Amino acid sequence: MPTELDDVNYQVAVANRILSEMGLTTGVTASLGHASMRLPSDSGRFAVKGRGYAIDVLSRVLPHEMVVCDLNGSQVEGPAGLTPCYEIKMHSCIYRVRPEVQSVVHVHPRYTVVMSVLQKTLVPMCPEGIDLVRHPLPVYPHNKLILTDEDGTEVAETLGDAPAVLLLGHGAATVGKDLIQSVMNMFQLEEQARMNWYAYCAAGPNHAQIPENLIAESDNRPPIHELPHLAELFGGSPAPVNNGVWLDYVDRVSKDL
Ligand SMILES: [Zn+2]
Description:
There is one protein chain. This protein is α+β, with helices and mostly antiparallel strands. It folds into two domains: 4-209, Class II aldolase/adducin N-terminal domain (L-fuculose-1-phosphate Aldolase), CATH 3.40.225; 222-257, no CATH class. It has eight helices and ten strands. The strands form two sheets. An eight-stranded mixed sheet has the order 5-4-2-1-7-10-9-8. Strands 3-6 form a two-stranded antiparallel ribbon. A hairpin with a 3-residue loop joins strand 9 (164-167) and strand 10 (171-176). Helix 1 runs parallel beside helix 5. The radius of gyration is 19 Å and the shape is globular. The mean pLDDT is 96. Bound molecules: zinc ion. Zinc ion binds at residues 32, 87, 106, 108, 145, 170-171.
């Protein structure tokens, strides 16, 4: 019988592979980044990608190669020879101050990084992830790796109650109520950053953005299953959550697991 930890390690390994498949850790950044998840039965511990693999890239991690750390970032379980990822304090310090957060992701996505160096606030440019950038995201104004408890605490304080924090010239960290949300938040953040970059290149730093009043039009849209032409088809039940993107990526990366 698989244990809870077996299941968590599987989910965390899949999430790390998905970050690569999504293009968020590829080429020169193939080994840079990590997804983590709290243990459901012990909120003081979380599973995360480690360091010390024969070929250390996110696209190749295996479930039994994940390590478990406590909220000090100290390793409490894991295969011999492995260590936690170097920026483990980003995870442990965020978990300490955000009890509702169940998953943390950190990567170095290219468009997010370049926009942070340009110090251009990300603004709404497309529907995907629009709520992430509807208000300016917090920026941690340092380029250094997050290696100490002081650094991690500063990042967590900068994050505050936001879903993401930008790390100037370095990357970003996203959080979520589960692995899917933290990974999808990063995927959508990078998509907004890419669209911001296109607009910046096409029209300069004062380019247009989707205005707040138009975004607000969607705030009170009727539920899909209550629309007159669909209500009978849905039988009064809410439309199912569309997580096709996630399931497609899970399928792509788990064939050899
Ligand atoms: Zn980093």
